[in-house]
Design a protein that fits this description.
The chain is of the alpha+beta class. The radius of gyration is 38 Å and the shape is elongated.
């Protein structure tokens, strides 16, 4: 649409520019001074639309570019630009004959017949547009001073000449424009191209333009009929005033007018106390994405209608401050929790579509100082932030402690910005371990703040604040880079790397291109994608389609995706079939939060079982006791992290740990696992009675027995408990499992299988020695049942139990 957009900070340095701006200003670069790069000037432009002393929420104006001899319609808006803080966004579009309706924003009717630029400083004029078929026009450009006299003599009706000359007195023109509220208008009869006289309206507005100019006004000339002149004049003035005072979407007062009207209201009734209520809609940007901007505009209009009715009922003033922010000034005590709750049960907030998008409201008493209204509005906004995210409460009243907390938070944000620059944030590492061997299979990178004065600051003291204020993406980028840097350092020093997981927050998706950022990192550090694992929260995946899309793209690139906090929010067993992640992380605190421990354990066991069926790995977080780890072993959860294994540690401590022999299992999370027994499949394929299956106690195993050996085909979780092995190690040894039996005991075991085959339904039972996979010798008791014969081997089902302690007791 020909628009170009750029952002500057309050020091006039460029922090962002889009492709259109880059084409328009080829020398532009981030960090450079806008006035130097855009206009080759040595100081801020005198006609800059942004006034740092009086920043408005949004302002639209015209400026002139001498380099391109082109007028531009410019809109600028105060924004908080990610990690750069308060900035100003500019969006511009060139103005030509085809887009002259843009001038309507300055108050002129949407159509006009001629448009003049009058430079009062240079004493020059230019005709930007004229309908030559209608008027007998002047020269397209020339000196300004003689223009009124020439027009009077040649183009203005004799009866209107005196008024015309007074209207175009340049000595008083600017003062009269200001007195008229920024727009000066009058009507005169002018000579038409047909030789007749026709009524015209001339409207003059001041504008800003390039440095070579100075004081400039625009004159719009439009045709009006004589008999309609006086009536239109009044109606047009009202309309122009409305355009200047009202927000076009909601018809409430705009920000500047609201503050002026509210101040006048308070001053008019000195005996009455007033309050300001500030209103903001939760997650309004997300609502627009989900339902479209038309639905979002409908919400804004509904709120505006509601506030307008309240203002009328209580003799107050309501305003739309921009975006989804509103304010209303009312007599003290008008706002109560009861009437707010009543309003929120009415349309449009009574529908399912607005669940989660309710207004948050802050209220503050207006004091009696000169800046009382603006200050009260600021304080009401602070109070409003206190109820964001707390859906049981929709309105809060300002307290002094809120401002103190906000001031403290702002100070901390500034410290965080400096800390990122000074690389004060350090990574600590928590190993992820096998629940059966205790060996390390992966790491999670956790951030700490090494504060120069306060020492090591834990993440709970700063991450929630960064998330609230939209700066978490800056920290996440830093953590991702640090994790990759450490991986590269270990590889370069000859240390065999193990996978490291880092977190992705939902806010990252709206601040940066997450996929591009992560792919760029692994390419820059020359890392295998599998070394950088990515953790997302279950709620972000379930709520935000943008997260699901990013996950799919990241998995296609080769990243491993972990779903954090599974089981704590939206998850269900049915959800498992739809998610496209590789690893589930379940939180052991889920057990401690529940009043019914037995039910909670059942839920966790069901999640682990379903995940195994779908070939999803499961890691338990927060494993702190031996009992918890044994529970995880019993339900088939192979991996965990927590204080039982290791606390988060510094990089130095981690490197010392990893230097120990046998501490790491480099096969990681995704080594092939021993196949689990499918009892139903066994029952369908054989005539073995269910009673036989039900009589088996403890571990179960399916064996293929040959003449000189036996192999392991399938096991259940009880088998791991009985033998002390894990599914990965067992998978590697399953075809050599007979070698775990001492040579002198092997004939005894093979004979047991022969006896079981001779006596189907009764089976055979015996105790023999067996080496655990760790090399330790144990005694195993096994009860065997014959299932079927297949070509050169037979299939058996057996129950196994650890008989080591019983054997030792019997020989005492």
């Amino acid at each position: 649409m020909q628009r170009h957009t750029y952002v500057i900070d309050h020091n006039y340095r460029i922090v962002y520019f889009d492709e259109a701006a880059k084409r328009l200003f080829p020398s532009a670069q981030e960090g450079g001074l806008c006035y130097k790069l855009f206009r080759n000037a040595g100081k801020p432009c005198e006609d800059c639309p942004w006034n740092p002393d009086q920043p408005d929420l949004a302002v639209q104006t015209l400026i002139f570019s001498p380099e391109r001899d082109q007028w531009y319609e410019i809109t600028h808006l105060e924004v908080n630009w990610f990690e750069r803080g308060p900035c100003v966004l500019f969006s511009g579009k060139p103005i030509d004959d085809q887009s002259r309706g843009l001038f309507a924003t300055l108050g002129e009717p949407p159509s006009y017949d001629a448009l003049f630029e009058l430079n009062l400083t240079d004493d020059t004029y230019r005709m930007l547009y004229s309908d030559s078929s209608k008027y007998n026009t002047t020269a397209p450009a020339g000196k300004l001073e003689p223009l009124p006299a020439e027009s009077v003599n040649r183009r203005v009706h004799p009866d209107d000449r005196l008024v015309f000359q007074e209207f175009w007195s340049f000595a008083t023109l600017l003062d009269r424009i200001e007195q008229a509220g920024g727009v000066l208008r009058n009507e005169f009869r002018r000579l038409l191209s047909t030789g007749e006289w026709g009524w015209t309206a001339q409207t003059v507005v001041p504008v800003k333009r390039g440095e070579r100019g100075g004081t400039v006004v625009m004159c719009f000339v439009s045709d009006v009929k004589a008999e309609e002149g006086s009536r239109k004049n009044l109606a047009e003035r009202v309309r122009i005033r409305q355009l200047r005072e009202r927000d076009p979407l909601t018809d409430l007062y705009n920000a500047s007018t609201f503050f002026a009207k509210a101040k006048a209201l308070v001053e008019k009734h000195p005996a009455q106390d007033y309050e300001i209520a500030y209103l903001d809609i939760e997650h309004f940007k997300l609502y627009n994405e989900w339902h479209g901007h038309e639905a979002g505009d409908a919400i804004l209009r509904a709120i505006a209608d509601w506030l307008a009715l309240i203002a009328q009922e209580f003799d107050g003033v309501a305003g739309h401050l921009g975006s989804d922010d509103f304010a209303i000034a009312l007599p003290l005590g008008s706002v109560t929790e009861e009437n707010i709750e009543t309003q929120l049960k009415r349309p449009p907030f009574d529908s399912e579509e607005t669940i989660g998008f309710q207004p948050a409201i802050g209220v503050c008493h207006i004091g009696d100082n000169d800046n009382a209204v603006n200050l009260a509005c600021d304080h009401a906004m602070i109070a409003m932030t206190a109820v964001k995210g707390t859906y049981a409460q929709r309105v809060a009243w300002y307290e002094k402690s809120m401002a103190e907390e906000l001031e403290s938070e702002a100070k901390t944000l500034l410290e965080v910005k400096e800390a990122l620059k000074n690389r004060e944030f350090v990574l600590h590492w928590q190993p992820q371990c096998s629940t059966r061997t205790d060996r390390i299979v992966g790491l999670e990178a956790l951030v700490r703040w090494q504060h120069p004065e306060r020492g090591l600051v834990m993440p709970g003291a700063f991450i929630p604040m960064l998330e609230r204020n939209g700066f978490i993406a800056s920290l996440d980028l830093y953590v991702w880079d640090e994790a990759c840097r450490h991986l590269r350092s270990w590889i370069d020093r000859g240390v065999k790397p193990i996978p490291v997981s880092v977190n992705i927050s939902r806010a990252d998706l709206y601040a940066i291109d997450v996929v591009e950022a992560l792919e760029s990192l692994v390419q820059r550090y020359h890392l295998d994608h599998g070394l950088l694992e990515l953790e997302i929260t279950e709620s972000a995946y379930a709520e935000d389609e943008k997260m699901a899309t990013a996950v799919n793209r990241l998995r296609e690139l080769g990243f491993t995706i972990l779903m954090d906090d599974f089981g704590s929010g939206y998850s269900s067993l049915n959800m498992l079939k739809d998610i496209t992640v590789d690893v589930l992380k379940i939180d052991m605190r889920f057990l401690s939060r529940s009043d019914d421990s037995r039910r909670s354990k059942g839920i966790l066991e069901a999640i682990v079982s379903m995940a195994r069926l779908m070939d999803l790995r499961v890691i338990a977080e927060g494993a702190e006791t031996k009992e918890q780890v044994e529970f995880l072993q019993n339900i088939g959860c192979d991996y965990a992290q927590g204080y039982y294994f290791y606390r988060p540690m510094s990089a130095e401590a981690l490197e010392e740990l990893l230097a120990q022999d046998g501490i790491v299992d480099y096969r990681g999370l995704f080594s092939p696992r021993m196949e689990a027994i499918d009892i139903n499949a066994l029952m369908k394929r054989d005539e073995t009675s269910r009673a036989v299956i039900e009589n088996l106690i403890g571990g179960l195993a399916v064996y293929a027995v040959y003449s000189d050996r036996f192999e392991l085909m399938q096991v259940n979780n009880g088998y791991y408990r009985a033998t002390g092995c894990n599914s990965v190690d067992l998978h590697e040894r399953q075809y050599l499992i007979s070698k775990q039996v001492p040579a002198e005991d092997l004939p005894f075991v093979l004979n047991l299988f022969d006896q079981a085959e001779l006596h189907p339904g009764v089976g055979a039972e015996g105790t023999f020695r067996r080496y655990r996979l760790s090399g330790e010798l144990m005694w195993m008791r096994m009860k065997i049942f014959f299932l079927r014969r297949e070509q050169d081997h037979s299939i058996f089902l057996a129950s196994v139990a650890d008989a080591t302690e019983l054997r030792a007791s019997a020989h005492k």
